[in-house]
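Render this sequence as a predicted structure.
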Amino acid sequence: MSNDIEQQSSRRSLLKGIVTGTAALAAAPVMANTDHSHHHHMPSKLNKALIAIANECAQHGDECIAHCMQMFKMGDTTLAKCAETVNEMIIMCRALAKMASYQSTQVNALAKIVIDVCQTCADECGKHTKHKECKACEQSCLECIEECKKLLA
């Protein structure tokens, strides 16, 4: 029995060593970089307005989806298409905000897609503006479209 305990202890020590060694190796390139001025790696400027509106659009989408879910629970499925388009918009706007935040070279390509996705969402939410959540979602989609167009101009 003490032999089993020794083997388990030995395995734990080995695993700890492997984890520690792997972490040290992974950190080595980062630790070796003593030049902390990373500006030479960054494109001209962070598009804070695009990031803000894309995040706002996704947030309004979350609120719209929550409202749709409440309607579904009451047996009202008239917002089903709305929920579907909003879900797609949320995914794309979150991706756009994330990629813009680290200045991906693919932001412009994604912005073109987001324009289409947001337009589809705005068109659908626009059919349900009696619901404040749909109206807010529509408005933020239109604002996101404008910001994307500025980026692409």
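Summary. The domain at 47-152 is CATH 1.20.1270.360 (Substrate Binding Domain Of Dnak; Chain:A; Domain 2). Residues 19-44 have pLDDT under 50 and may be disordered.
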